[in-house]
């Protein structure tokens, strides 16, 4: 049977990239899962604090993320939803993994570099840059590996940008199991959606991201039909007013074709959408895209708003408390074995 695990940072309302690249997959896996399968989705607040966060804002963003996960159709009866900081076994395993993880491997990873060097041209970590680098940002992938391994997940559905982190998680399994000469930790498989890399609507060479200062670069899962239309109508494309699918030469157009294909009610491909619109203008494509995205996101905004208010907030608190309880039990099963093979004290 399968154990599905994934995580999302509570750093703002999820956008279409998070939704198509990850969250919609989570819902699909949930809807396909059998009684034997386990699904766990964590709101990873400990990862969020690798960048400065205001405490009050972090608390509300965590709640908002939980409401968003429920609003897209995750069902707490089938999926365990919890805050990472509610389950201390994640950080406990992180420390143990970091004692067999290689600094060299971590140093070659790109995500912390791109955060650190944002704005500069990607280059070497000189003295000045590394003194601004916080240990937590550097060891971020070790915590992510612990998230996955502590639940002995077999499948991890993520967007393209997380593939490197998943490879590192498998490396942690090898290192740990080899060091302690046990097949204790389980190597997880990466699952990616067909649309694993949604691009910015302002700059199709960048991925759509929560942290971009330009709000017009993204569509939120809670955007109104009007906002969706505006964002897509003003999306950056190119000067050829015809619809063709050429991902390398026309990335902006390809992104809109991809969004239209992914949001169309019947499975289709960007190339098929381009064929359908052959002879049409970019305006026609944008209209079709806005319509498809609006239909795909319909209802999420209302459910989200209602969930945040339900029982004066108590509903969300109760869902998370129940999820944390299940996740703690699941993680503790692994940790008992881990503490034992490492020779650490067992919890009484
Ligand atoms: P985060 O919070 O940045 O993103 C959550 C999920 O959304 C995907 N995603 C995208 N997919 C397609 N196109 C995009 N433009 C796009 N932007 C984001 C991400 O790939 C991700 O799947 N490190 C993780 C959180 C994490 C995690 C884990 C994930 C912590 N522990 C354990 C899996 C397993 C992150 O920052 O995701």
Task: Report what the structure shows.
The protein is mainly alpha-helical. The chain folds into two domains: 3-197 and 312-342, Rossmann fold, CATH 3.40.50.620; 215-300, Tyrosyl-Transfer RNA Synthetase (Orthogonal Bundle), CATH 1.10.240.10. It has helices spanning 16-32, 45-48, 55-71, 89-98, 103-107, 111-116, 127-132, 135-138, 140-150, 163-180, 225-233, 251-263, 270-276, 282-297, 300-309, 314-342, and strands at 3-8, 38-43, 80-83, 155-157, 189-191. The strands form two sheets. The protein has a three-stranded parallel beta sheet with strand order 1-2-3. Helix 1 links the parallel strand 1 and strand 2 (38-43). Helix 3 (55-71) crosses helix 15 (300-309). The two termini are 31 Å apart. The model has no long low-confidence stretch (mean pLDDT 95). Tryptophanyl-5'AMP binds next to strand 1, helix 1 and helix 9.
Topology:
Elements: E1 3-8, H1 16-32, E2 38-43, H2 45-48, H3 55-71, E3 80-83, H4 89-98, H5 103-107, H6 111-116, H7 127-132, H8 135-138, H9 140-150, E4 155-157, H10 163-180, E5 189-191, H11 225-233, H12 251-263, H13 270-276, H14 282-297, H15 300-309, H16 314-342
Parallel strand pairs: 1-2, 2-3, 4-5
Helix pairs in contact: 3-15, 4-9, 4-16, 9-10, 11-14, 12-13, 12-14
The site of tryptophanyl-5'AMP (TYM) has 25 residues, from strand 1, helix 1 and helix 9.
């Amino acid at each position: 049977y399968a154990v599905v695990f994934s995580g999302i940072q509570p750093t703002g309302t999820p956008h279409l990239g998070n939704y198509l690249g990850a969250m919609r997959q989570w819902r699909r896996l949930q809807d396909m899962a059998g009684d034997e399968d386990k699904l766990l989705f964590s709101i990873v607040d400990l990862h969020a604090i690798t960048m400065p966060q205001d405490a009050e804002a972090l608390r509300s963003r965590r709640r908002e993320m939980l409401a968003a996960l429920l609003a897209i159709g995750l069902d707490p009866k089938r999926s365990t939803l919890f805050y990472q900081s509610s389950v201390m076994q994640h950080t406990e395993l992180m420390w143990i993994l970091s004692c067999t993880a290689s600094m060299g491997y971590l140093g070659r990873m790109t995500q912390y570099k791109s955060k650190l060097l944002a704005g500069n041209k990607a280059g070497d970590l000189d003295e000045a840059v590394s003194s601004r680098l916080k240990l937590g940002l550097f060891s971020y992938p070790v915590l992510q590996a612990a998230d996955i391994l502590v639940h002995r997940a077999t499948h991890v559905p993520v967007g393209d940008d997380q593939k490197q982190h998943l490879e590192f998680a498998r490396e942690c399994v090898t290192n740990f199991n080899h060091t302690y000469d046990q097949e204790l930790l389980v190597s997880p498989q990466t699952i990616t959606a067909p649309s694993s890399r949604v691009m910015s609507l302002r700059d199709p060479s960048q991925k759509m991201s929560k942290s971009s200062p330009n709000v017009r670069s993204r569509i939120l899962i809670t955007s109104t039909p009007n906002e969706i239309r505006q964002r897509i109508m003003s999306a950056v494309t190119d000067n050829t007013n015809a619809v063709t699918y050429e991902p390398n030469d026309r990335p902006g157009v390809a992104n809109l074709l991809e969004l239209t294909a992914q949001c169309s009610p019947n499975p289709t491909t960007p190339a098929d959408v381009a064929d359908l619109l052959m002879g049409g203008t970019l305006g026609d494509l944008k209209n079709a895209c806005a319509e498809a995205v609006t239909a795909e996101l319909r209802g999420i905004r209302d459910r989200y708003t209602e969930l945040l208010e339900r029982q004066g907030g108590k509903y969300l608190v109760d869902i998370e408390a129940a999820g944390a309880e299940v996740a703690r039990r699941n993680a503790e099963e692994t940790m008992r074995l881990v503490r034992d093979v490492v020779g650490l004290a067992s919890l009484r």
